[in-house]
């Protein structure tokens, strides 16, 4: 069965620290990959997406993610986090069908 | 403003009392879906709909029903709620499915349901 695994459930960083959140998916075929973010009290919203082409994708607010097909990974990165990046981050995958599968989420807390 | 609207946002009910959570989108999206979010489990899909009158089960459909009589609406029905259905529910929609990129989901604000 298809699944998405996020390595860290809780991450605490100080402002200006670098961020990398791990995500692995299990599916051998063509896949669409997403990172969604849920800021406190707000809707889930798209951070970035990968469909094809350049495996390094850039999203909003300075986030980027790299698709590594050989590792089935789609890790999220940001060189320098801010207090306002405190949120829950969800990795998600779909295979072009009608099901988007989400990981368990990573709660990021950035200390000011 | 393009959006997905859910109601109610908060609800406390008792075991066995039927309830409906409404979901409406104003983007003419074909695809709609319901998820529940539980700590440590992420979002799990309950039901989805590819278009009017076309629905299918997701990963956790037990205890839920849905209908899609109009393109814009996709209500979630709990016929006989139980405490294990206490959760945060999200409705989402997208243009459609496929590898073209059309399946970026737009989410509603969430409905927090407590079943006593």
Structure description:
The complex is a heterodimer of chains A (112) and B (116). With 112 residues, chain A is an all-beta fold. In chain A, 0% of the residues lie in helices and 54% in strands. Chain A contains no helices and 12 strands. Chain A has strands at residues 3-6, 10-14, 19-21, 23-26, 32-38, 44-50, 56-58, 64-68, 73-78, 87-94, 100-102, 106-111. In chain A, the strands form 3 sheets. In chain A, strands 2, 5, 6, 10, 11 and 12 form a 6-stranded mixed sheet that branches. In chain A, strands 3-9-8-7 form a 4-stranded antiparallel sheet, with no helix packed on it. Chain A has a two-stranded antiparallel sheet with strand order 1-4. In chain A, strand 10 and strand 11 (100-102) form a beta hairpin. Chain A is globular. Chain B is an all-beta fold and 116 residues long. Chain B is globular and about 40 Å long.
Please describe the topology of this protein:
The complex is a heterodimer of chains A (about 110) and B (about 120).
Chain A: E1 3-6, E2 10-14, E3 19-21, E4 23-26, E5 32-38, E6 44-50, E7 56-58, E8 64-68, E9 73-78, E10 87-94, E11 100-102, E12 106-111
Parallel strand pairs in A: 2-12
Antiparallel strand pairs in A: 1-4, 3-9, 5-6, 5-10, 7-8, 8-9, 10-11, 10-12
Chain B: E1 4-7, E2 10-13, E3 19-25, E4 31-38, E5 42-51, E6 54-57, E7 65-66, E8 76-78, E9 87-94, E10 106-107, E11 111-115
Parallel strand pairs in B: 2-11
Antiparallel strand pairs in B: 1-3, 3-8, 4-5, 4-9, 5-6, 7-8, 9-10, 9-11
